[in-house]
Design goal:
mainly alpha, elongated
């Protein structure tokens, strides 16, 4: 029997098999991209102070009106916090209105002047706090009058009911007691002396 003197050749089939990459270990399933409202909210609230986008400018007035239904008198600080809170409460919902609220929340991070310019579209500034321009046609004339008197009297003004009655004397027909109660309870607090002051806008009263 002759001796085999040639070199052993590697099993080419095995070599190809072992050299082939393990696709199961190399391919990683792509992670899910959070495109929902919660992801949007995290993005806008972590962005820091920034100029508002056109999308935010369009969504913000509606969100502000909703906020003023909760807090009748608001400081800028309360508005910022209120926008964030509203967005957080709605971030789990996929409805268009909820997404608009989340979009509006980025307005809370805008510079004061920019945010106030949008607030002024729907609200009136009474020495640093804001109230809606209009509440209801039936009480708006008296409401406008009370707001004007407080603006004219300056910051920290205190009014007695007689002051308001006097300012409203020329109106016809006269305002009812119910209308006075609605307007004063919305906008004001009273002290032990029976004087009325504009609410502080901190959301506590």
């Amino acid at each position: 029997m002759g001796m085999f003197t040639g070199q052993l050749k590697p099993n080419s089939g095995v070599a190809r098999s072992s050299a082939r990459p393990n696709m199961a270990t190399q391919i990683t399933a792509p992670g899910k991209v959070d495109r929902g409202s919660k992801g949007d909210l995290d993005r806008v609230l972590k962005s820091g102070t920034r100029t508002m986008s056109e999308e935010t400018r369009e969504a913000l007035p509606r969100a502000l009106k909703e906020l003023f239904r909760i807090h009748k008198v608001c400081s800028v600080q309360l508005i910022r916090q209120g926008l964030r809170d509203m967005a957080l409460s709605k971030s789990a919902h996929a409805k268009a209105g909820s997404r608009a609220t989340v979009t509006a929340a980025s307005g809370a991070e805008a510079p004061d002047q920019e945010l106030q310019s949008v607030i002024s579209q729907v609200a009136i500034n009474i020495h640093g706090v804001y109230v809606l321009k209009s509440r209801h046609p039936s009480i708006d004339p008296l409401r406008d009058l009370v707001i004007k008197v407080f603006i004219d009297r300056g910051p920290n003004a205190k009014l007695k009911k007689a002051d308001i009655f006097e300012a409203a004397r020329s109106y016809s027909p006269p305002f009812s007691d119910s209308m006075y109660s609605q307007v004063l309870n919305e906008l004001c607090i009273s002290n032990e002396s029976g004087e009325w002051m504009i609410k502080s806008g901190d959301g506590k009263i």
